């Protein structure tokens, strides 16, 4: 039987696909653009057309599948967008669904991941919730523009600390549980990087490794939200969710460091300095 990986072109999904293949599993990489997936994995895995918003794509994607890596695309803000797919899993003999959730979600009902976790648990399908901290990829993604163009980390996290984790490490952790479903079923793991740092420290790492003076802008929450909408042209809903997540961060919700990654993989997670070194070219103007 095979493992279906949703969001397989994403920050975490692509690493789930690669690691499961390395472990000898048969993988189906799913997404809305199969041509892109074919090029990305260079014919090494099967690909399937899959769209959460199009239930008619589910049954083909789920053929011969007994484990699922489930992620919520960031722009699908309502948990209800994911429910039809979870419900359809009940009709298949699924041995494990590994859901890409969020650190601290067990105590925070506001982000959609909270209710998605509950829905999975209520379905009776064996599950593992993977609850990562903030991804380092946010620095080379959402926040790259200000670093490149203005030498500033523009994140409204105040003086709080964050245990940033590399998305590739989150992928390794998810692959580990999918490879040994019976060992991990009906549990949750909080996956963090090896250290908690504030964004002044992150700016220093960036400055030291790029050779440019990069500072931490430390905008207020509202200023950041308005900037995202008015100057970056980001969707209002997305800007609101991001601002809310950084508001929580200010209360210390993103600073815990756990050893769950080591327990699952036997490896140490990447440091922020490792990540910056690997992506040095990306930060160039
Ligand atoms: N960023 C963080 O710091 C962080 C931290 C903790 C948890 N998380 C959670 O991790 C998840 C992934 O976040 P991310 O920012 O890293 O995103 P990402 O992996 O870059 O997400 C985009 C993925 O979603 C897929 N997708 C988009 N629309 C789809 C649809 N209608 N049906 C099926 N697939 C669709 C895309 O595939 P196609 O290209 O094939 O459409 C792509 O692979 C989110 O739920 C987020 O809340 C993020």
TrEMBL record:
Start and end residues of each NmrA-like domain: 2-216
Xref: Pfam families: NmrA
SUPFAM superfamilies per UniProt: NAD(P)-binding Rossmann-fold domains
Transmembrane feature ranges: none
Name recorded for this polypeptide: NmrA family transcriptional regulator
Organism: Youngiibacter fragilis 232.1
